[in-house]
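Sequence in, structure out.
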Amino acid sequence: MQSKRFLIIAIMSFCFLFARAQTLPSSEGERARYSVQIDVKKAYISGICGMLFEDGKLKASVVNEFGFSAMDFEYDPQKDKVKIINIVKKLDHWYIKRVLKRDLRILIHNLRQGVYKHENTKYEITYNFQPLQPITEEATNNGNAI
């Protein structure tokens, strides 16, 4: 268990080395990537969150280090609402999704202000989103895209 946690911390630390401040996508076609860790009492989800502003909504997907999708959600800035599109089976319960929607909405407001963390003290959940270096056209052409 300790070696698994060490590996995850090492991967996350590597991602933080390439961290760079970026803004939350707010206009058509803008993208952002974040390193994510969501901690709960006895477990956590970590990976990368990709965000895209499209059709007037912020669409996001959280994927773990192995490429499995943990959840997909969208945020409608006009209605100020989060909708969970897809979520792993263990979290697919109405009461969990209700808390997630509320917390993700607050987190999006925080990200707009440059705050990359949200703590839900009632349910002891901590959300950490750290910006990752954006993919540039030059890096893609050289085959160096992450």
